Amino acid sequence: MNTPNRLAVTVASTDGRTTRIGPIPTRQLSEDMHHSLSAYSTRPEREGTTCEITDYDPTVEHLPLLPTTAPEIAELISDPRQGFEAPFPNLWERLVAQIGLAEGDVLWRQAFALYVDDEQARERPADRLNAADELFTNNLRQRLTELVASRAGDVSAKEIDDAVVSIQGLAADWARNYR
């Protein structure tokens, strides 16, 4: 039985996996999440996935909306079902879908800093660096994809220069925080 006025976002992967996220309290948030999770991406695991807004059905398993504090996100980073290495949509992608790239990036950095301070994470420096490399690459892809998509391929020299400055900022942050 569906609960009135509560929505969900359902992501179906080409491998047959279905991920439901909800309940989502507002139509606007469900539309924002749908847009983010169905946006063009160069990531192979997103190829062929579909995303739709559905009614929330409490009789079916859903991933909840994410918490929005760094300590709570840090606790989820290594969760096999919804953490950073979980299948699409993983923790990072859900966070960006739920609160946007700019706010999500700040929260992710705070959470990741708490995560790497964890004793277990200190015992795995290679894993930390690989995760940092992947985060940097994902942020870079996202920003370049947004730039190109926003201009339908018609990108000015200034926009490219702005993208380069943004990329340089990502690289500097990455070097300062993870190496």
Order of helices and strands: EEHEHHHHHH
For the largest sheet, list the strands in their spatial order.
Answer: 2-1-3
The counted number of beta strands is 3
What is the residue-mean pLDDT, rounded to a whole number?
A: 80
Residue runs with pLDDT of under 50 for 5 or more positions: none
Tally the helices: 7
**Helices and strands: which structural class?**
mainly alpha
Q: Beta-sheet strand percentage?
A: 5-15%
Shape: globular
Topology:
Elements: E1 7-12, E2 18-24, H1 27-38, E3 50-55, H2 70-76, H3 91-99, H4 101-117, H5 119-122, H6 125-150, H7 157-178
Antiparallel strand pairs: 1-2, 1-3
Helix pairs in contact: 1-3, 2-4, 3-4, 6-7
